[in-house]
């Protein structure tokens, strides 16, 4: 019961953290660069799958009510249904997937998260790229719809992709403008940040971490660790 309340509180906190990270952004077009990937990856590292999912679903629900926690201090259902709504829709799935991949990795490693070394963290970093796939896939689909419906967005997409010489094929141009240009920051900044924060939490407060994430170690391993 107490652990359930702690996980609910942590899920709420991580929803708020994702909203705050959304404000660390700048716009080079209709899709902003933000630090939000760190939010859903961190949820997957600190919480069990259903609670990681719940944290990001709560974040979307808060936005839907009009509270301005989307990037640029925006809120409302229109944000979720707009050109960037697909990315947001992918957050709960990505958090759940990160949590499930983390649990699977720890069971195979037979160690707690606090006990992991640099190679393990590198492996989890690669898994974080897999976890982000729903965000990119849904972001691409929603953005594609809006490109087909909005001539000005289409023109911007072709200009942006043209800077990389990728404007000849429309589908590739949309993928470039909506996904490819964001991957380097996500994988080289947001995801490593989330991993380092989670690892620091696990090492500094292992009992708190395990209460939140639970132990995903295989039975019989020496010492109990947490990973969430």
Question: In a few lines, what is going on in this structure?
Answer:
The chain is an all-alpha fold and 228 residues long. It has helices at 2-22, 36-46, 49-64, 77-81, 85-109, 118-131, 133-149, 151-162, 170-178, 183-204, 206-213; strands spanning 26-27, 32-33. A hairpin with a 4-residue loop joins strand 1 (26-27) and strand 2.
Strands, helices and their partners?
Blueprint: H1 2-22, E1 26-27, E2 32-33, H2 36-46, H3 49-64, H4 77-81, H5 85-109, H6 118-131, H7 133-149, H8 151-162, H9 170-178, H10 183-204, H11 206-213
Antiparallel strand pairs: 1-2
Helix pairs in contact: 1-2, 1-3, 2-3, 2-5, 2-10, 3-5, 5-6, 5-7, 6-10, 7-8, 7-9, 8-9, 10-11
**What's the CATH class label?**
Mainly Alpha
Q: Please tell me how large the radius of gyration is.
A: 18 Å
Strand order of the largest sheet: 1-2
> Got a strand count?
2
Please, how many helices? 11
Mean pLDDT: 92
What's the N-to-C terminus distance?
18 Å
What percentage of residues falls in helices of 4 or more residues? over 70%
Please give the CATH architecture. Orthogonal Bundle
Element order, helices and strands?
Answer: HEEHHHHHHHHHH
CATH topological fold name: Arp2/3 complex 21 kDa subunit ARPC3
């Amino acid at each position: 019961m107490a652990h359930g309340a702690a996980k609910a509180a942590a899920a709420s906190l991580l929803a708020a953290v994702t909203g705050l990270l959304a404000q660390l952004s700048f716009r080079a077009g209709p899709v902003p660069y933000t630090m939000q990937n760190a939010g859903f990856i961190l949820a997957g590292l600190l919480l069990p799958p259903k609670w990681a999912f719940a944290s990001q679903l709560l974040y979307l629900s808060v936005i839907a009510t009009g509270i301005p926690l989307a990037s640029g201090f925006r809120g409302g259902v229109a944000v979720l249904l707009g050109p960037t709504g697909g990315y947001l829709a992918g957050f709960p799935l990505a958090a759940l997937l990160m949590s499930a991949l983390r649990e699977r990795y720890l069971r195979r490693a037979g160690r707690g998260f606090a006990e992991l070394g640099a190679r393990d963290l590198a492996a989890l970093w690669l898994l974080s790229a897999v976890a982000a796939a729903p965000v990119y896939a849904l972001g691409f689909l929603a953005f594609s719809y809006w490109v087909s419906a909005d001539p000005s967005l289409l023109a911007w997409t072709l200009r942006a992709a043209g800077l990389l010489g990728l404007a000849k094929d429309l589908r590739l141009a949309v993928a470039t403008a909506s996904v490819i240009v964001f991957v380097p920051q996500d994988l080289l900044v947001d995801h490593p940040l989330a991993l380092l924060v989670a690892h620091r939490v696990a090492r500094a407060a292992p009992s708190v971490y395990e209460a939140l994430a639970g132990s995903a170690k295989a039975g019989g391993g020496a010492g109990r660790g947490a990973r969430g």
